[in-house]
Amino acid sequence: MSRAFIYATLILMKDRRKFAPYLFIAILSFIGFILFINTFTPTTPVDLFGLLVPSVIPLLLLVFLIVSCVFAFILSHSRRGVFVGLFVFCFLVLQLIRYNNIFYTIILILIFVLLEYLFISRKNKD
Prior knowledge:
- With 126 residues, this protein is mainly α.
- It has five helices and two strands, in the order ααββααα.
- A two-stranded antiparallel sheet has the order 1-2.
- Helix 3 (56-75) runs antiparallel to helix 4 (78-96) and helix 4 runs antiparallel to helix 5 (102-125).
């Protein structure tokens, strides 16, 4: 193998090691997700710090955490992982309140693509 290939591989591995905590958080969140599903029914409210909330809210937050951490690890970029997690979260909230028209999904995709474009163009300006 050439030295350039080995050097490029080492740089990519170093970049992946920087995002390894995201994978660890995603695995722990997935375990919490499974335990949450096995423990609570959808109709049972959850007691969070003395406040009774529907069990869907912590479930959606766990889904956001899992998806954002997994995609932050896969894409090696925290912002894009958070964007994908927010997209999934917003999509699931729209499905929960029965806004399941295809146009809402297209608008949601356009919003997140434009947000990504905004951050890329702002980065290139500086």
